[in-house]
Specification:
- The chain has 662 residues and is α+β, with helices and mostly antiparallel strands.
- Helix content is 16%, strand content 32%.
- It has four domains: 70 residues, Immunoglobulin-like (Sandwich), CATH 2.60.40; 241 residues, Rossmann fold, CATH 3.40.50.1110; 146 residues, Jelly Rolls (Sandwich), CATH 2.60.120; 126 residues, no CATH class.
- The strands form eight sheets. Strands 1, 3, 4, 6, 7, 8, 9, 10, 24, 25 and 26 form an eleven-stranded mixed beta sheet that branches. It has a six-stranded antiparallel beta sheet with strand order 11-23-13-19-16-17.
- α2 packs across α10 and α7 packs across α9.
- The longest helix has 25 residues.
- The radius of gyration is 28 Å and the shape is globular.
Length: 662
């Protein structure tokens, strides 16, 4: 068996970093010499006592495809084909970075016809946790170009970033995707980056115990299996086979879908509920395939049409988009039955989502009155211990093995999972992470990240405990992290969906990230930021009738052509939302509702806002002794119009302290 080994990142189809001394490394028998031949040059390295060798290539310009030959003094050789030279981005974070194109495909139906590009490639690392220390080598991943066949598995955010940066530069783009839904920032940080966070390090120490981890994972599986088994065995609908849709529904109650359990007699209900509805199919659609969309359902659902299983989803977040195969729909009366499990008393059919059965020849609206019956009640399901989210685990298993690979920069989309008890520490953690990553990569890498979008967490996050959930605080911590040099942030307060933790408009996010990269890495001088608060001046005075009026003048940078746009859903926004295409007075009566004043007693006061050039004038007639803070969009989601500059970028939410006014 050969001794010459290469890491997974050094393989066919790889993209090497341009204009830097890219590192090539591997393993071999100590004492051998390894030679790397590339672009007419040879680079030699001795294998050290630990069996590791490494060379640095000369700086190279973008191009390809090329071949690399690697051989050693014992005659072993490897050939690496289809190498491109361009810019490589390390893409990391939680679900909104991990979310694949197939989850948003219906939002971009034409993209698959134009996506193919051999110069955009991804290296997807699958979930791997490790608490004992950094792995030397990745255990998964290979370089894959975007084609019609591979497109659906690309990270949507990373793909759209690559698409737009490639459009601007023509440089091959490599995407190393190390992301995992639900993960916290501390799970992507090493022990040295968490120094002083004794609570995190204590957790990491505990999960270094392999027996403990094995027991935790077994307990997760045991309690989930037992909960579902108890519920299924008690469910009258399972025993009487209600899935066939032939039961007597005369005593079933009525509800209008969509709805929240909390707003009905099902408030706080835990267990299973069956839903029933009849619909009619015309002769021309009988037996044909159709699509069934059922919004999102909390927590899980199983769907039958005419007694045939057509879909099942076992957790709350994915959109319910099922295919009804040929041969199921029949002319005339049809029956749809849905079994829903509510695990913690927060069940719902999410509103403002599509509920329809459709094809090119029909479209049946499934919103409205359904019949329902409880199958069985149950106690709350046990809480899952998500082991991979624990501090240091994902960093050691997925990030650390990438540090030798030369890259252009880092894309980070995370924060949702830190909006609970760690919200007030997020800014420090993010700065430590940026500094730590740059140290490990031995490069002052550009660090681009996405600020949390709008989301009505208090209504749509089916979590056990929302007591400490603080999205506005994390947004502000993210804004303040811009103090770190060579960082950039995408403001996304307009790209979210109030009713969905995973908004569809990933092209908007990718486009804004690409604009930031174009400025930070390539020196493009086009505007890529929304208005950012710079200075505040406050005055108070008396009106003719003796009433006290507080006035604040807020001055912003990146605020040319400031204007307001009514509240809308992020999925409806054009990613190239440019005000040049909008008449200046199109929204002149739009109400700006999201500026607030906080007095020295901590009492909140709403303020009237008016645009004046690059400034915003706030007035408040409340009785205030002194203003302590000013906030903009310091809520989970905006209430009214958002402010944009003429390039179409939104004002960044902020919270600032003010002094010297009483």
């Amino acid at each position: 068996m050969g001794r010459l080994k290469l890491p997974r990142l050094i393989g066919n189809g790889m993209i090497l970093q341009q204009k830097k001394k890219a590192r090539i490394w591997g393993e071999d028998a100590p004492g051998r010499t390894v030679t790397v031949s590339f672009l007419g040059r040879e680079y030699a390295a001795a294998v050290d006592g630990s069996g590791v060798w490494e060379v640095r290539l000369d700086e190279m310009n973008a191009g390809g495809p090329y071949q690399m030959l690697i051989g050693d003094s014992a005659g072993e050789a490897r050939s690496i084909e289809n190498i491109a030279i361009g810019d490589v981005w390390f893409c990391t974070g939680q679900s909104n970075m991990e979310l694949p194109i197939n989850r948003v495909m219906d939002h971009y139906p034409e993209e698959i016809n134009i996506c193919a590009n051999p110069n955009i490639r991804t290296f997807k690392i699958t979930e791997r946790r490790e608490f004992h220390g950094p792995l030397r080598e990745l255990e998964s991943g290979e370089w894959t170009p975007v084609t019609e066949d591979t497109f659906s598995n690309f990270s949507a955010t990373a793909y759209f970033f690559a698409k737009h940066i490639y459009r601007m530069t023509g440089v091959p783009i490599g995407l190393i995707n190390a992301s995992l839904g639900g993960s916290r920032i501390e799970s992507w940080m090493g022990r040295d980056m968490l120094e002083g966070y004794d609570d995190f390090l204590a957790v990491a120490d505990r999960y270094c115990d392999d027996d403990f981890v094995t027991k935790r994972l077994a307990e997760n599986e045991r309690q989930a299996d037992e909960w579902h088994r108890r519920l299924d065995s008690a469910d009258i609908g399972v025993r009487e086979n209600w899935a066939q849709g032939q039961m007597d529904i005369s005593t079933w109650k009525e509800l209008e879908i969509p709805f929240f359990f909390q707003d009905t007699e099902l408030k706080n209900f835990i267990g299973s509920v069956w839903f029933y509805r009849e619909f009619t199919i015309e002769k021309q659609m009988a037996g044909k395939e159709a699509k069934l969309w059922l919004g999102t359902i909390v927590d899980s659902d199983t769907v039958y049409i005419n007694g045939v299983l057509v879909g099942h989803t076992n957790y709350q977040y994915p959109p319910r988009k099922y295919i009804v195969p040929e041969g199921i729909l029949r002319e005339g009366r049809n029956v749809i039955v849905i079994r829903v499990k509510s695990e913690i008393g927060q069940g719902r059919f999410t509103d403002n989502k599509p509920y329809r059965l459709f094809s090119k020849d029909m479209d049946i609206d499934l919103k409205g009155i359904w019949r329902y019956h409880i199958g069985a009640a149950c106690e709350m399901i046990g809480e899952t211990d998500f082991v991979s989210w624990k501090p240091t685990g994902l960093y050691h298993g997925m990030t650390a093995p990438c540090h030798k690979y030369t890259i252009a920069g880092i894309l980070w989309y995370q924060g949702e999972s830190n909006t609970h008890e760690t919200a007030g520490r997020y800014g420090d953690l993010l700065k430590r992470m940026i500094t730590g990553y740059r140290k490990k990569w031995e490069d002052n890498l550009p660090f681009l990240y996405v600020q949390l979008p709008n989301f009505q967490v208090e209504r749509y996050d089916a979590d056990r405990d929302k007591t400490f959930c603080d999205w506005p605080r994390v947004r502000e911590e993210q804004r303040r992290a811009l103090e770190t040099p060579d960082t950039a942030m995408v403001t996304a307060i307009d790209l979210g969906e109030d009713n969905d933790l995973h908004p569809l408009n990933k092209e908007g996010v990718g486009f804004r990230l690409a604009m930031q990269a174009a400025k930070l890495l390539y020196g493009k001088d086009s505007e890529c930021d929304g208005p950012q608060i710079e200075t505040v001046s406050i005055e108070n005075g008396n009106t003719a009738d003796g009433e006290t009026v507080w006035k604040a003048t807020l001055i912003f940078r990146s605020a040319s052509g400031l204007y307001a746009v009514p509240k809308q859903s992020g999925q409806d926004l054009n990613p190239f939302f440019i005000s040049a295409n909008i008449a200046p007075d199109a929204f002149e009566k739009t109400e700006i509702m999201d500026f607030e004043l906080i007095d020295k007693k901590g009492i909140l006061h709403n303020a009237k806002a008016e645009i004046a050039g690059k400034s915003v004038l706030l007035t408040c007639r409340d009785q205030i002794s002194a203003i302590r803070e000013i906030r903009y969009c310091y809520r989970n989601t905006n209430q009214g119009a958002l402010l944009y500059n003429k390039e179409g970028f939104p004002m960044t939410p902020f919270w600032i302290e003010v002094t010297g006014n009483g």
